[in-house]
Every structure is written in structure tokens, then in C-alpha cells.
Automatic annotation (TrEMBL):
One of its GO terms (molecular function) is kinase activity. This is histidine kinase. It is found in: Membrane. Keywords: ATP-binding, Kinase, Membrane, Nucleotide-binding, Phosphoprotein, Transferase, Transmembrane, Transmembrane helix, Two-component regulatory system. SUPFAM superfamilies: ATPase domain of HSP90 chaperone/DNA topoisomerase II/histidine kinase. The chain crosses the membrane at residues 21-45, 57-75. It holds the Pfam family HisKA_3. InterPro entries: HAMP_dom, HATPase_C_sf, HATPase_dom, Sensor_HK_TwoCompSys, Sig_transdc_His_kin_sub3_dim/P. Its EC number is 2.7.13.3. It comes from Nocardia acididurans.
Amino acid sequence: MDHRTGGLGHLLRHTRTPVGALFRRIILINGLVFTFGTLVLALSPATVSSRVRLTEIPVLLIGLAVMLGANAILLRRSLSPLDRLIASMHRFDPLRRNDRIDDIDNGDLGHVIDSFNAMTERLESERTASSAAALAAQEGERRRIARELHDEIGQSLTVALLSMKRAVDKAPAEIAAELGGAQEAVRLCLDEVRGIARRLRPDVLDDLGLHSALAALCHEFSTTAGILVSREVDRSLDRLNPDVELVCYRVAQECLTNTVRHSGASRVTVGLQVKADVLELCIIDNGCGGVSREGAGIRGMRERALLIDATLTMNSPPGIGTDVRLRVGYDTARSV
């Protein structure tokens, strides 16, 4: 008795949950269908003999078909929101903003839809917070390494370069040429260290803003990579939110790096414009295109875009080139 009572109590408690509500609806639909079928059989002139006659079989089959059809239609309508829920689960991408499911007229499944939307919102919030912390730590480490390269290694190489210059001036002619070669090697090493420090954390971005930082970036790639990098930047743009400027700079830097390494392009255009209250950064090259798999670099760009509530799109048809665009609301980009 206690076992049966416990089982019944468990069932009653279960029916108070969202799944229990769906369970009650299914039971109600089936009960109504069978009740309707029973009333039709009771009130209609149709009868069934103790031994079913051949002429009565069509009546039974029609009645069964009507009951099954009505049951299928009602259940299909009640469970149809599950199709949208499953489709949304398949489309879910942690590196993109995901659409929420509209729970209007979803009946008892509205609780399930609301729970899924809340879970998606929570996952996106936690992902954004964790990505922000990771990228902030990464930028801090970049800044520290750049400062050490500039202050420690850069100054040491500068001192070594000056010492070698004095040695060259005092050295006999037979070893002056050899010392001159070593001096040039140290000078090249110093330039490389300064370039690495500048790429890790460009001072011009903090001092002069995104416009000047993009100009320096394009000039650097034009000089070192041997490709034509043109700029189409709106010079009337004011200083933007520091986070927005940093994300735009890193996206442009990653795109140019990928272009040099993988695309085989001879020309690339970097644009920064405001269109219909939307700040758009675009990087377009004339390389081989055909990017079908997103590597760590592209995933990193998507993570950065999420930090400023921006949208990153990439179009890379084979043989035509790659078009990467970062879009963020201009009001959001200007807010500090």
C-alpha cells in the first residue's frame, strides 16, 4: 500500500513539472479521442456482431482511421515547437550570437522554450565574461612582453651597437670590415626587436587612435610583405571606445597576417567607414580565397567581436579572394 501510494505521489508531483504538463496534455488528447470514438459507436446505428462480418470491417477501419488521424493531428500540433527547439540546438554556435525561440502559442512547451532561451542567454554571458578575462590577460601579457623587449633587450642592443661603433672607429683597417658586419647584424636585430614590440602592443593606438594605428599597420605590411595595402579610412572619425579600437586593430592585424601567409594576394584593401550608424571595418584581398575551415586565428577574431557586441562575417569564394567585415553600432563604438 505504501509502495503504491509513493508511486502515485511521485506521479502527481511529476505532473506539476513542464514535462508533466506535456504528459497531461497527451493524456487529455488521447482521452478525448477515445471518448469521442466511444460516443460515436454508442450513438450511431452501426453495430458489430460477435463474429465480425466482412461488411462490418470497413466501418471498423474507418472508425480506427478517424481516431488515429485525429490523435495524430492534435499531438503533432502540440509537439511541433519541439522541431524548432531541436533546429535551434543544431544551429547553436558558441562563437556567434544565437537567435532566441519565440514562445508565443507554444502552450505547455513554453516552459521548455523559456528554459532553453535562459540557458542560451546564460551560456553567452558566461562565454563573453570568460573570453573577456582571457583576452584581457593576453593583452596584459602582450603589453608586459613589449615593454620588456623595448626597455631591456632594446636598450641592451642599443648599448652594444654604440660600443661596436666605437670599436669600429678605433679598430685597424683589417678587422674594421668584420666588425662593421657584426654591427649591421646587431642593428638588424634591434630593428626586429622593435618591430616585435610594436606588433605586440602598438603605442600609436593608445597615443593617436585607430586611424593612425591602421596607417602604421598597413605601411608595415606593405614594406615587409611586398604586397600593395591600400587604406579607405574615414578621416573624420573621432576617437572610439578603447576596447573597440583594440578589437578593430587586432582583427585587421590578423586578417593581414593571414593574407600574407595563406592567400597569395597581391593587393589588399583596409577600410573603416560609418554606414547607416554602423561602424564597419572591412579587409578585402584578391587572393585565392576558398577558406572553408576556421582556424585559431578566425576563432580568435570571433571571440574579440563578441566582446564589443559586434558581428564578424567572412566571404571567401574560391579563386576570387576573401572579404572580412566587422560591424558594430556606431553609438556603441563611441561610448566610453
